[in-house]
Write a structure and sequence with these properties.
The chain has 113 residues and is mainly β. It contains no helices and 10 strands.
Amino acid sequence: VQLVESGGGLVPPGGSLRLSCAASGFSFSNHYMMWVRQAPGKGLEWVSQIPSDSGRQFYVDSVKGRFTISRDNAKNTLYLQMNTLSSDDTAVYYCTNFRMDYWGKGTLVTVSS
């Protein structure tokens, strides 16, 4: 099983990034997937989740209206479009399945001027 996040980087406040998570070694299309983040010096925070059929999605209140989770089951890839970023969004972003037994190494998002 492998999850590989990418797309992080340094972005100014108000900017946008699109994170990707490439999955392999398991039946991605059958799994509910999530994005979780960890800000410097803080614990893990659930950000968003999406069912296997891309049905109803959920977001933590702090990102509602700014972030959009999506997936492409044909490409075994999970995405997170992040808009209007603020310094509070600075964190390492991880993708994981709903049971949280598959994890990537994360991608660092730094929002700073």
